[in-house]
Amino acid sequence: MPRIELKGARIAYAAAGAGDTVLLLHATASAGTQWQALAETLRPGWRLLAPDLYGYGESDPWPGHGPFALAEEVALAEAVLADAGRGRAPIHLIGHSYGAAVALRFAVQQPERLLSLTLIEPVAFHLLREESLPANRRLFADVRKLAALVSNAAASGDYRRAMARFVDYWNGKGAWRRARPELQAALARQTPKVALDFWAATTEATPRAAYERIAVPTLILAGGSSPRPTRRIAELLAESLPASRLQTIEGAGHMLPLTHRDVANAAVLAHLLRNKAGRHRPAAA
Fold first, then answer.
1. Cα end-to-end distance, the chain, whole Å
2. What is the C-alpha to C-alpha distance for residues 94 and 91, in angstroms, rounded to an integer?
3. Are 220 and 237 in contact (CB under 8 A)?
4. In this predicted model, what pLDDT tens digit does every residue of 79-123 receive, in sequence order?
């Protein structure tokens, strides 16, 4: 697995395949390995890059050079692209959950670099914060309660209780109890970074109007049984991104890339094929 150094932290990423570049950004408390099934589907015709974001997988924690923000993860993604020889080349960008929030920030900063964008259950919580509707503000308040629990646990050391609540929120009641002890222990150790992820996603300053300028073809995948905050965020983004299409997978929850991977991967592959480099370019004279 290639490694680079960024701001004093070692960052790991997986690279495979050849063709159009696809950058894959994983969810909170996960790692680039979450994309293994999708990578097996895509590898024959695509160049895949799957970094471990700060504090996950084989990447070092955020080194603390100031307040953490989504832009720091975007810089990590840019460094991985540069190290992989993709420089300023156009890419397909795919993100799930927290990784989708990072992908949105990337798209705002560099829309010209994208061939396509796929957002799976994006946790762009800041959109709920800025909304004037009371129902949306209540959804943001619910998220903030969970974020505060995780943040307080990171400060006090009560990791397991916070991560039990976190896992059950996104996966359904009892999910933590059913998890293997070694998985529970691994998740508990990630509590400090989970708190930073919540901080970045809830304090992001990009206004909703900025997304109206992202004209790249965008697929938004949502789970029909996901928590209401992410379903509402998917709706808001579908209304804001001018070239977007919202697809709801009924019966799926927040972790649909894993629980409903065949349906999700088929949707992603179809979106990539529709927007493959050169596909819509006029023929040379």
1. 43
2. 10
3. yes
4. 999 999 987 889 999 999 999 999 999 999 999 999 999 999 999
User: Tell me, what amino acid is at 131?
Assistant: E
The two structure tokens encoding residue 263: 């349906």
- Third-level CATH fold of 3-125+207-274: Rossmann fold (3.40.50)
In 3D space, the residue among 3, 17, 5 whose CA is nearest the CA of residue 272 turns out to be 17
DSSP 8-state assignment for residue 61: P
Per the listing, tokens 């790692």 go with 31
Q: From CA 104, how far away is CA 94, in angstroms rounded?
A: 10
Nearest C-alpha neighbor of 84 from the set 136, 130, 37, 48: 48
Side chain identity at residue 23, one-letter code = L
10 Å CB burial of residue 205 (0-12, 13-18, 19+) is: exposed
Q: What is the pLDDT of residue 44?
A: 82
How many Å apart are CA 233 and CA 227, to the nearest integer?
A: 10
CA distance 284 to 137: 52
| Residue 73 structure tokens | 């993860």
Give 63's DSSP letter. Answer: -
Query: Domain residues of the chain, as ranges?
Result: 3-125+207-274
Task: Determine contact, residues 136/128, Cβ cutoff 8 Å.
Answer: yes
Contact in structure between 48 and 25 (CB atoms under 8 Å): no
